[in-house]
Design a protein that fits this description.
Layout lengths: L2 H13 L4 E4 L6 H9 L4 E4 L3 H13 L4 E4 L2 H18 L4 E6 L10 H13 L4 E4 L5 H15 L3 E6 H4 L1
Parallel strand pairs: 1-2, 1-3, 3-4, 4-6, 5-6
Length: about 160
């Protein structure tokens, strides 16, 4: 990932008013994690797994923060139970930012993620946007955060390889 693309993600989080982020760093999105962790306006908490990160982000919202959950594509499956509970029972407006893998051009083994990511979000009734252009990253992060807050539910932004690399 190019640093300027990671800066677009950070800019989107800041424009959206995010002041807390939780996640599990992964190789695909490592520059985003580093920039978020270094930013003085966003408190970042790294966790052992994505389910724990979802719980930490939800707790941050109950503590008055504006959280984002930053997870790998595979991490969505790890966090599914916790996200479903957050979304359906607790009405927590949690922004979820995911580098979307499994798209055309990705290695064959990543195809699994295309088969599971969007169906999992739909099953949990989490609205989402798939972003394919770098120029649209910040606006879509902000739009999804605003919708999450207005609807008191999770909303996800899926950033494709085309947008990020």
């Amino acid at each position: 990932m190019k640093p300027e693309k990671a800066r677009l993600v950070l800019a989107g989080l800041k424009e959206a008013g995010v002041n807390f982020a939780a996640g599990v760093p992964d190789a695909q999105f490592i520059q985003v994690y580093r920039m978020v962790a270094a930013d003085p306006d966003i408190r970042y908490v790294g966790t052992a797994n994505e389910a724990e990160a979802a719980g930490v982000a939800m707790g941050a919202w109950f503590g008055g923060m504006r959280p984002a959950l930053i997870i790998a594509t595979s991490g969505l499956l790890v966090a599914t139970y916790h996200l479903a509970r957050i979304n359906l029972l607790h009405e927590v407006p949690l922004l979820i930012v995911i580098p979307y893998r499994g798209d055309l051009g990705d290695p064959r083994w990543m195809g699994l993620y295309q088969k599971t990511t969007e169906p999992a979000l739909k099953a949990m009734d989490i609205p989402y946007r798939v972003v394919t252009r770098s120029a649209d990253i910040a606006r879509n992060i902000k739009d999804c955060q605003e919708s999450a807050r207005a609807w008191l539910r999770c909303a996800a932004v899926l950033l494709t390889e085309e947008a990020l690399w």
